[in-house]
Amino acid sequence: MAIKLEQLNSQIVRCRKCPRLVRWREASAKNPPRRYVGQDYWAKPLPGFGDSKARVLIVGLAPAAHGGNRTGRMFTGDRSGDWLYGALHAAGFANQPNSDHRDDRLKLNDCYITAAVHCAPPLNKPSLAEFKRCRPYLVEELKLMRQQLSAVIVLGKIAFDGFFAAYRESGAEMPQPKQNFGHGVCA
Length: 187
Known about the structure:
By secondary structure, the chain is an alpha/beta fold. It has a single domain (2-169), classed as 3-Layer(aba) Sandwich (Uracil-DNA Glycosylase, subunit E). 39% of the residues lie in helices and 9% in strands. It is built from six helices and four strands, in the order ααββααβαβα. The protein has helices spanning 2-14, 19-30, 68-71, 79-90, 128-145, 157-169, and strands at residues 49-50, 56-60, 111-115, 151-154. The protein has a four-stranded mixed sheet with strand order 1-3-2-4. α1 packs antiparallel against α5. It is globular.
C-alpha cells in the first residue's frame, strides 16, 4: 500500500488540471513577500504526508501560498503548522514539535496529513470546479487507507464538506445520521 500511496503522490505533484491554481501557485513563488525573497519555492501541488499505515487521517482545506506552497509539505512553514505539529508532537504522533521545511527530519507516527485541494488557491478559496478536479486524489487516498483508519480529523467546514464528498465517492458507508460540521465537535 505504501507504494500505491507513493505513486498517487507522484501523480498529485505532476497535476496541472486547474489553470487558475497553477498560475497562482507559480506567481506566489515568483513574487513572494519580503520575508521569503530568495527562498526556493516548491510551487507544485502538495502530496499527502506521513505514515502510510496511519490510523489517524488529518484533512485540511489546501496549502498556504507562502507555507506549504513554499516548503513543499502540508502545514509546514506557516502559523497553522506551528500549532498542528506542536499538538501532534505532544500527543506522540510527531517526532518533533515543529516543521520548517520538507527536509527537516519530521516524521509522523500513525498519522497522515492531506488536503481537499492540493494547490494553494487565491485568498484560500478554491472554486467548486477546482474541488471537483482535485477530489479524485482524496478519494484514492481514502480507498487506500480506509480499512486502517480509526479517526479522521477535518480542519474547517470547507475541508469537512470536501472530505465527506470524497468519502461518499470512495464507496464508504456514510455514518447515520449525517454529521454536521461544528468547531470542536466529535462524532
